[in-house]
């Protein structure tokens, strides 16, 4: 009986210790520092970063959207619920940083959120002419191109699809077609969580 009590006590203590552990990941809320960024990757975009320095509430991130082995520069601003949100994208073309796209689908007078999916699609969610709208972009041969725009008129229960092959506002489609296009472009909905770095820290790194 005493041996059983000792075993149970050990198990209880082990469980209490495990409950007190905190995983050293994004759940801790620790902010990254510019020292963790590869200086060679950041140097590719030095001219762009230098031009962005000084903008209020401005951030940047480096992420390989299209999987070609070279990271794109993402410029973010504190525009969505008080957090950094994707605002524009730059990519390396022939060794030079080239501006690709600024995202500005407006929603009730403010900038709508943009998302990057793990399959390389960027989506912008907002409203256009009072219709809920999702605009999709992907890289093609090193350039960010518009792929599809999906709109949903909930009042009339109508769905519209506007791609690069037809005219705005697009072609009426069924709800099933709407959901199929959305699923194909979002690739299961796996969103990339970006590490945003304050441009103020980049500015300070230049002075050090």
Plain-language structure description:
- By secondary structure, this protein is an alpha+beta fold.
- The chain has one domain.
- 25% of the residues lie in helices and 38% in strands.
- The chain is built from five helices and 13 strands.
- A six-stranded antiparallel sheet has the order 7-8-9-10-11-12, covered by helices on one side.
Brief overview:
The protein is α+β, with helices and mostly antiparallel strands.
Distance between the termini: 67 Å
Summarize the amount of helix as a percent range. 10-25%
Q: Write out the strand line-up for the largest beta sheet, numbering strands in chain order.
A: 7-8-9-10-11-12
- Spatial shape: elongated
Count the helices. How many? 5
Percent of residues in beta strands?
35-45%
Average residue pLDDT: 77
What's the structural domain tally? Answer: 1
- Rg from alpha-carbon coordinates: 23 Å
* Secondary structure category: alpha+beta
Q: Strand-and-helix sequence, N→C?
A: HHHEEEEEEEEEEEEHEH
Poorly predicted segments: 1-34
Number of strands: 13
Largest sheet: 6 strands, antiparallel
Outline the fold blueprint:
Layout: H1 2-19, H2 39-43, H3 46-52, E1 58-63, E2 72-80, E3 83-93, E4 96-102, E5 106-107, E6 110-111, E7 114-116, E8 122-128, E9 131-140, E10 143-153, E11 158-163, E12 171-173, H4 175-186, E13 197-198, H5 199-207
Antiparallel strand pairs: 1-2, 1-13, 2-3, 3-4, 5-6, 7-8, 8-9, 9-10, 10-11, 11-12
């Amino acid at each position: 009986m005493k041996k059983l009590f000792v075993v149970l006590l050990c198990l209880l203590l082990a469980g209490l210790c495990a409950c007190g552990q905190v995983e050293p990941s994004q759940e801790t809320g620790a902010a990254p520092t510019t020292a963790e960024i590869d200086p060679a990757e950041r140097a590719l975009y030095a001219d762009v970063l230098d031009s962005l320095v000084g903008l209020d509430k401005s951030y940047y991130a480096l992420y390989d959207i299209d999987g070609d082995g070279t990271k794109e520069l993402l410029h973010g601003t504190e525009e969505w619920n008080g957090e950094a949100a994707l605002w524009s994208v730059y990519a390396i073309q022939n060794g030079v940083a080239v501006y690709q796209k600024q995202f500005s689908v407006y929603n009730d007078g403010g900038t709508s959120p943009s998302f990057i999916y793990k399959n390389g699609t960027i989506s912008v969610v907002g409203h256009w002419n009072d219709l809920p709208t999702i605009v999709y972009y992907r890289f093609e041969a090193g350039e960010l191109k518009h792929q599809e725009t999906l709109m949903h008129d909930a009042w009339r229960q109508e769905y519209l699809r506007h791609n690069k092959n037809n005219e705005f506002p697009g072609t009426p489609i069924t709800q099933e077609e709407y959901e199929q296009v959305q699923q194909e472009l979002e690739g299961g909905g796996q969103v990339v969580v970006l590490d945003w770095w304050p441009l103020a820290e980049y500015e300070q790194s230049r002075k050090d």
